[in-house]
Design a protein that fits this description.
Strand order of the largest sheet: 1-2
Largest sheet: 2 strands, antiparallel
Strand content: 15-25%
Distance between the termini: 38 Å
Radius of gyration: 20 Å
Length: about 70
């Protein structure tokens, strides 16, 4: 068409030159309801610095956020 090409969103690629959409790279995903111009994401890494405390009636867990969300 007359419109210029645009880059694929992060973590996606095209299968051929002039493709009309971009597919997610291996290990990355896009929800069915997500628009095709939305970046593909993957599962987050594990939480960091997990600490557990147990007493007679409860268990308390504390952690730092994952390195990659």
């Amino acid at each position: 068409g007359d419109e210029g090409c645009i880059h694929c969103p992060i973590n996606s690629r095209t299968t051929s030159e002039g493709a009309t959409n971009c597919v997610c790279r291996n290990g990355y995903y896009r929800a069915d309801a997500d628009p095709v111009d939305m970046p593909c994401t993957t599962i987050p890494s594990a939480p960091q610095a997990v600490i557990s405390s147990v007493n007679e009636t409860s268990l308390m867990l504390e952690w730092s956020p994952p390195r990659d969300s």
